[in-house]
Amino acid sequence: MGRKKKKPVKPWCWYCNREFDDEKILIQHQKAKHFKCPTCHKKLYTGPGMAIHCIQVHKETIDKIPNALPNRNSVDIEIYGMEGIPEADLREHERQKGNPSNDVPIMSQPSSGMPQMPKMPPPLTSPAAMVAAASGMIPPQVVGLNIPPPSTPYMMPGYLPPAPYTAPPVPVQPQTNPNVYATIGAPSTPYVSTLPLQSPLIPPQPLVNSVIPTGTLTNVPSKPLFPCVSNTGADNSSSTTVVGADFKPILSNSTSTTNPPSSSSVISKPASVASTGATSRIIHPEEDISLEELRARLPKYAGMIPQIA
Amino acid sequence: MSGFGGFGAAPTSLFGSPSSQPTFGGFGSSNLIQNHNPMKDFEVANSPDDSIAALEFSPPALPQNYLISGSWDNQIRCWEIQQVQQGWQSIAKAQQSHQGPVLDVAWSDDGTRVFSASCDKTVKMWDLNSNQSIQIAQHDDAVKTVHWIKAPNYQCVMSGSWDKTLKFWDTRSPQPMASIPLTERVYCADVIYPMAVVGIAGRGIIVYQLENQPSEFKRIESPLKYQNRCLSIFLDKKQAPSGFALGSVEGRVAIQYVSPTNPKDNFTFKCHRSNGTPNGFQDIFAVNDIAFHPQHGTLATVGSDGKFSFWDKDARTKLKTSEQLEQPITRCCFSAKGELFAYAVSYDWSKGHEFYSPQKKNHIFLHPCFEELKPRPKT
Fold it and tell me: Can you give the residue ranges of the C2H2-type domain (chain A) (predicted)?
């Protein structure tokens, strides 16, 4: 039994039963083979995400995941790498792997979808190749589609002129581009499946605010690039831009605004993370003070500080 | 810079013999990384004996590259970094010490002086030509940040402390030119004239404009939900500071324009998190430092997870992630010409003192990076 443990089941693709050495490669495979929009070749993050994309962008309904086994082509099941595989299929696969005739591992399903599977490039093994592969996971055109590169900032004449600050806060995203949501929300189930129902009419601000925090904590797989391009910061700054345009100190009123968070901010990290119902934890001591302050308390360091006023 | 050779005569064995302690298993419980240099980078010789809290390359005014570190063993060290046939080599040049851990270092713009902020509540100025070090600033608590401000009509040193003040020193007077009381302790700061940004406890951020004299410009509540940890100002296409990147302890970085033309210019992204295991936790690590590439404008982040990543904030893409190092990466910086990325591998206290092992060796690595940080071509 020690031997069995030694060889854990490799990551495998639910859609086509293919095995991979690394879940990263598996995810790449899924994006390239199963989550690629047949119309525009955009790579989405999940099957449902792709279906939503096709409906919203191309007005096309996708009823089958491309390149999938006949009984594994549901667009309703959200799979991301090894996440979301139905428990029964997981057990079935493990059982198949567990049996000694390991040379026919792929045929765990009666269907014969395999022969049609296009050849995949051999799994990347060198670290450099993996990194390169990982960073290429979203092709540039995807990014271009979703988030136009901010060319505007460079038009700004520095940060000094006061004019921009008087601009009213603009929390509303001009266009609800479905692509954005598909990409942002892709790996975690809840909002991908619900968002399309909400459609562009929903005011985006509450949406962004609610999506981002939960999304960050529930997204178990950490995605390889700017996984959560959100505009939360924008709202903050634009709402506070009214002050300080004349460079005058604004201590009086902002004292009250900065104090509450600090006094109440003994964030019990694991607790707060758990309270979101997520499966993540922040690797940080519980006390919400800087690591340096904690460390400096150690007698070894504190002892060296001369007690001068 | 001929006068600068003055301190170059120090022997290479200045920092004592290199530690011969073997490196033990990996940082953290689950991984066993035997290799202390998975990126096959060039290791800086005679690295500090305790965690590295500060790291800065010399400014463009110097033709050579010098690297300064400040560390928890109270030392400030200086190396000359030379290009040799096989790559890069470091030559230990000199060191100075404080009475307490050194939390930050900064160069003067002409590269002749180095300023260091320490838990001993002082800032010292180290004149590299004479190798003399004198105290130039005093706080009531540990000094967390130090920066050099070079304005057309004045120059000074800015120090931020856990005593909740930001002070400005002309380096000759024991009294500060200005002292700005803050509501909270200073955690991070950056200066690129005419902008200074200070991150404080309680998620506050204060932007100062430095023309004529430092004055508060704007207060922002952090766009991130967790403690401010590191901060770096970035430039726009005209090489004027236009915003900053802020890293928090919750594996996240905010790109924040001070005057965004469009609210959507500001955004946040996640980083330094473990890949979630199917039924385990996802570990989220602190972002320990952020640095912008001096030529490309792309950025590097380093984290408690022991990895560094390169990003293109304009294309909003990741350019590269490193392998995992044995210990967290505490600080990073780019050389003035942008050919080298230096990163310091040492314990950052993110898992508390239980995980602190003084026997573990600390490393500073040099990673040739000019190509890797080129922005993603626009398509």
Answer: 13-34, 37-58
